[in-house]
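Running this now, will post back.
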Amino acid sequence: MYSKNIANSYIPNYLNRYIQAKKGNLDLLKNNYIYWNEVVYVVKNRLKEIRMREYLMDQKAFAEMLGIKKSTYNTIELNKVQGNAETLLTIAKALNRKVEDIWYLED
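Update: finished.
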């Protein structure tokens, strides 16, 4: 499990912006949209694709493998929320991937 004091270098720049937005340091954040310098970015993930193609598991089994609650996993996979930095890193570590290989910005 990752420490809660995570160095920013482990998190891609756009996710740092997302985290800062949640702290109120960006122009505006609504749901999974980041408004940065008048450009709208949508944070998306590849979790369903990874789960279905590589693991062939349902959400419950996949969440258990990742070490998170199914309800938490469901909301993240469906892009309803992105989760906190600790959860993102926990998922990336369990999948043996970089965070930026799972989450990306779409504008």
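Helices lie at 13-22, 47-55, 59-66, 70-77, 85-94, 99-102. More later if anyone needs it.
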